[in-house]
Amino acid sequence: MHQLRDVVVRLRSGQSERKTARAAGMGRDRVAQIRERARKLGWLDPEVPMPSDEEVSRALEGEPEELPAQMVSLVEPYREKVAKWVTAGVQAITIWKALQREHAFAGGYNSVKRFCRQLSGNLEAVEATAPMLFEAGDVGQVDFGSGPLVPDPETGKPRKTWIFVMTLAFSRHMYAELVWDQSVPTWLRCHRNAFSFFGGVVRRVILDNLKAGITRASVYDPVVQRAYYAFAEGYGFLVSNCIPEHPTGKARVERSVKYVKRSFAPTRDFRNLVDANLQLKDWLLGEAGNRVHGTLHDIPLRLFAELEKPALKPLPDRPVELAEWGQVKLHPDCHVVFQKSYYSAPETLIGRTLWLRAGDSTVELYHEHVLVATHLRSRKPGTRSTVEAHLPEAHRAWRQATPEHCRVLARQIGPHCEAYVDAMFGDRVVDRLRTVMGVLRLRDKYGPRRLEDACRRALHYGSLGYNPIKLILERGLDQSPLEEDWGGQFALPFPEEAPRTRFGRDIGEMMNEGFLA
């Protein structure tokens, strides 16, 4: 439009078509067409006010130019195939490489890009955006990306990794770390390492809706993962998730992830994960931190050191404990399961859903926000941590019933009870543990003194077992004196000549007849 306006100005001043065409860089035929159009509109009269840009554009830009016909795009022979790819959302760079590979395409990438835009109408459909501006120390954006293959510490075979990246939105300085997974503990640990790397904490962390951070994505009411909520509260930053399916809110960290993947990972070899992260840290503080950023036209590490680091919030006096939270169910055996280990809780909560908090060294169980159990955290799968008071009374008694424990209880009752228990445990064939437990349980009903006397009487007559002791106690025989208590006289003395009974016989006669032979 400005070129057309310049032509009109020159023609109004009386300049020839030849000079005007040479100055405007267009053909004389085109200048003649413009002169004729301007004459009809009265623009060539110097006394008439110069038309506006809009009027010039509307009147002259629609005129056909008598120039050589526009060259047909080199992509035109492949229109149908390219149209299918564009409809499927294939990128122009991919289409260009496919044309080179399949058809020996000689054209450049820009010609393919222009052709794809014409087919898709992207020139008219581009959505307007506004740049997001952040203050120093205000925002850190976080994301995961696929990482390089690193030897597995157990098998030595190449194993897939993930790249965690936190980018400071103001200075574009970033922290990155290679990890094995995207679990909640890894997510929290990477945040803590990033804040330690920066030497401070941002006011907001912008993240995508990954499960380690957001358990329920929503535009208005997102639900933050409980462990991440407690972590953010401890470090004092706000969690700001992106709108679902619109990750453009963290575009800076997405570009940082691509930068790490393309500039760091492809050209290096790693012995193990530790070696990979040591190389990555050197690269962050060297090449990446001291590059001239394409958008800022400045060095990220300089901006960070001079402007952003002083604006960060200080780190907590103590590192925040990396605790995991989860809901678990108390099973009939009075234990919950967490990471293949078992932790007990009171039997009254069987079947209830509890909140479990797993810290670095302890596991805590909560019911309706009330702490009901605390255990040392187990790192070995299959380990069972049990508090005896959590079990039913009968189960506790059985768990404690060992021969040693029974002997201790018997010794507390008395020496005869201890001897009685030792005698029963001396059986080489039958397991007498339940028998001993039953005998000792009689103390609850009859008391330790009577049980001691009953054991004394049963030992005297050589009666071992549960039923003899029970019978003695039920009939009160523990209160009857033994022979030794009468000074050796077990029965009352008989008279020297006792009356002879009807069927009685003399002992001598019986011996003489051989009855007692």
Give a quick rundown of the structure.
With 517 residues, this protein is an alpha+beta fold.
Give the number of domains. 5
Mean pLDDT: 86
Strand sequence of the main sheet, in spatial order?
A: 3-2-1-4-7
**CATH homologous superfamily caption of the largest domain:** Ribonuclease H-like superfamily/Ribonuclease H
Radius of gyration: 47 Å
Q: What fraction, in percent, of the residue positions are helical?
A: 40-55%
Give the N-terminus to C-terminus distance in angstroms: 149 Å
How is the secondary structure organized here?
Elements: H1 2-12, H2 17-24, H3 28-41, H4 53-60, H5 79-87, H6 92-103, H7 109-120, H8 122-125, E1 139-151, E2 158-168, E3 174-179, H9 184-198, E4 204-207, E5 214-216, E6 223-224, H10 226-235, E7 238-241, H11 251-263, H12 273-288, H13 300-308, E8 324-329, E9 335-338, E10 341-344, E11 353-358, E12 362-367, E13 370-376, E14 384-385, H14 393-400, H15 403-413, H16 415-425, H17 433-441, H18 443-446, H19 448-460, H20 466-474, H21 507-512
Parallel strand pairs: 1-4, 4-7, 10-14
Antiparallel strand pairs: 1-2, 2-3, 5-6, 8-11, 9-10, 11-12, 12-13
